[in-house]
Specification:
The chain is α/β, with parallel strands linked by helices. It has a single domain, classed as Thiamin diphosphate (ThDP)-binding fold, Pyr/PP domains (Rossmann fold), CATH 3.40.50.970. Helix content is about 40%, strand content about 10%. Helix 6 links the parallel strand 2 and strand 3. Helix 1 packs across helix 3 and helix 5 packs parallel to helix 6.
Length: about 300
C-alpha cells in the first residue's frame, strides 16, 4: 500500500478500537453490558501496529484487557459487541465476555485473564508451529506487571532455547493496576530483561503506530525465518482506569495530560488529509451503530447448553 493508504488503514483500526471502547463505556454504565470491563483507550497503536504485520493464520494471545487486540486481529465489531452482551452470536457464543474475548477463526486464542497466563501458552503455540513445520508466528501481548511473573521468564527462556517463532509484546502503561512499575522493579526497561535469555529486546514508542509497526515487522520477520523470539516493549499509557471501578487516584492529572498530548489517534490523524480521516470516522460510527443493534437484537444462549464446551 502507498504510505498514506497504509497509515489510513492503521488509523481506521485505532479509531475502531477507540470508539468501540467509548461506546462500551456508556453501555456498561447504562447497565446493558454485564460484568466488568478493562478498557484500552490510549494503547491503540500497539494492537494496530503489531497485528497489521500478522497474517490471518498467525495467532495471538491476550490479557484481561483484550478488546483492542481482538478488533485489530480481525474479530468483527458485531461479534465482539455481542460477546460483551453475553449473546449467542458473540465470538465466544456469549460464554467468554469481556476478559475472554477471542476467535480462533481469525487467529486469536480467547483471552487469558490470569496475569502472565499467555506468556507460556504462546510458547506452546510456537512449539506446535515449529514441530508441524508451519509458516506461522505466535504473538503474546502482556503488561509490564506480568514481567515480574515466573511465567514471563519461563516462557521467554523456553522460546529462546528452542528458537520458537514467537514475539513477546509488553504493553508498558506504567501501572500494574494501581502499582507503579518503578516501585516493583529496579530495571527501568522491561526490554533489558531479554539479554538474560539471549534474545533481542527493543523499546518502542507505543504511542506512534508507525514506530510500532516497523518494530513488529522486524520481530515477526525474524521469528518467521527461524531466528527465534524478540521482546518488544511498547511504552504506552491507558487513558482510563484499570477497570471501570478505578478512579485513578494513584496518578496525577498533570501526568495524564502530558500523555494525552501524545494521543496515538491524534498523532496519526495529523499526518492524514482531513477529508480522508473524516470519512473513516463516519464509517466507524455506522459500523458501531450496526454492532450495537446486532448485539441488542441477538438471542441469549440456551440454558440447556450451559455445560457445552466445558472441560475439566
Amino acid at each position: 500500500m502507498p504510505p498514506e493508504a497504509a497509515l489510513l488503514h492503521l488509523y481506521r483500526t485505532m479509531r475502531l478500537i477507540r470508539r468501540f471502547e467509548e461506546r462500551v463505556y456508556h453501555l456498561f454504565l447504562d447497565g446493558e453490558i454485564p460484568g466488568t470491563v478493562h478498557q484500552y483507550q490510549g494503547q491503540e497503536a500497539v494492537a494496530a501496529g503489531v497485528c497489521d504485520v500478522l497474517r490471518e493464520t498467525d495467532w495471538i494471545t491476550s490479557t484481561h484487557r483484550p478488546h483492542g487486540h481482538a478488533l485489530a486481529k480481525g474479530v468483527s465489531a458485531r461479534a465482539a459487541m455481542a460477546e460483551l452482551y453475553g449473546r449467542e452470536t458473540g465470538c465466544c457464543r456469549g460464554r467468554g465476555g469481556s476478559m475472554h474475548l477471542g476467535d480462533v477463526a481469525v487467529g486469536m486464542l480467547p483471552a487469558i485473564a490470569i496475569v502472565g497466563g499467555g506468556n507460556t501458552v504462546v510458547t506452546g503455540l510456537g512449539l506446535a508451529f515449529q514441530l508441524r513445520r508451519e509458516d506461522r508466528v505466535a504473538v503474546c501481548f502482556f503488561g509490564e506487571g506480568a514481567s515480574n511473573e515466573g511465567a514471563f521468564h519461563e516462557g521467554l527462556n523456553f522460546a529462546a532455547v528452542r528458537r520458537l517463532p514467537v514475539v513477546f509484546v509488553c504493553e508498558n502503561n506504567l501501572y500494574g493496576a494501581s502499582t507503579p512499575f518503578r516501585s516493583v522493579s529496579l530495571v527501568e526497561d522491561v526490554a533489558d530483561r531479554a539479554a538474560a535469555y539471549g534474545v533481542p529486546g527493543r523499546v518502542v514508542d507505543g504511542m506512534d503506530v508507525l514506530a510500532v509497526r516497523e518494530a513488529a515487522a522486524d520481530a515477526v520477520a525474524r521469528a518467521r525465518s527461524g531466528g527465534g523470539p524478540t521482546l518488544l516493549e511498547c511504552k504506552t499509557y491507558r487513558f482510563v482506569g484499570h477497570s471501570r471501578s478505578d478512579a485513578r487516584a494513584y496518578r496525577t492529572r498533570e501526568e495524564e495530560a502530558r500523555w494525552r498530548e501524545r494521543d496515538p489517534l491524534a498523532l496519526a490523524r495529523a499526518r492524514l488529509p482531513a477529508p480522508a480521516a473524516d470519512a473513516v470516522d463516519a464509517e466507524i460510527e455506522a459500523e458501531l451503530d450496526a454492532a450495537v443493534a446486532f448485539a441488542r437484537s441477538s438471542r441469549d444462549p440456551d440454558p440447556a447448553s450451559l455445560s457445552s464446551d466445558v472441560y475439566a
